């Protein structure tokens, strides 16, 4: 089974392949989401979880997710690449509107 770090690396590679500018948020401050990125002018973030711990979002992480959304950004919790691809598709749909 892949580690959370391996999953995160896979997500970063896919986001960059799709043209996103990615910042590893886990290196900044406690509670910051793992991946913050700019995608086609939109600010978005992903909290990366291992599939076995996907429901383990801390109150501080949820607070930051809520702050991002309240500020007009976009955020999800993800543990599979499929979720990241669907998230980017949703962002693409927002851009079309």
Topology:
Elements: H1 4-17, E1 21-24, E2 35-39, E3 42-48, H2 59-70, E4 74-78, H3 81-96
Parallel strand pairs: 3-4
Antiparallel strand pairs: 1-2, 2-3
Query: What is the overall silhouette?
Result: globular
Mean pLDDT: 92
Our estimate of the beta-strand percent is 15-25%
Major beta-sheet overview: 4 strands, mixed
Q: How are strands sequenced across the largest beta sheet?
A: 1-2-3-4
CATH C-level category: Alpha Beta
Supply the helix-strand structural class: alpha+beta
Number of H/I helices: 3
Number of discrete domains: 1
Please bin the fraction of helical residues: 40-55%
Distance between the termini: 39 Å
List the quaternary state of the chains: single chain
Report the CATH topology name: Trna Endonuclease, Chain: A, domain 1
Q: Can you write the helix and strand succession as a string?
A: HEEEHEH
The number of strands is 4
Contiguous uncertain segments of 5+ residues: none
């Amino acid at each position: 089974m892949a580690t959370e770090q391996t999953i995160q690396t896979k997500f970063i590679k896919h986001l960059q392949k799709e043209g996103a500018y990615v910042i590893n948020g886990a290196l900044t401050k406690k509670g910051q989401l793992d991946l913050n990125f700019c995608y086609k002018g939109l600010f978005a973030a992903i909290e990366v979880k291992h599939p076995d711990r996907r429901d383990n979002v801390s109150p501080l992480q949820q607070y930051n997710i809520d702050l991002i959304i309240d500020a007009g950004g976009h955020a999800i919790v993800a543990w599979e690449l499929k979720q990241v691809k669907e998230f980017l598709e949703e962002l693409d749909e927002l851009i079309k509107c």
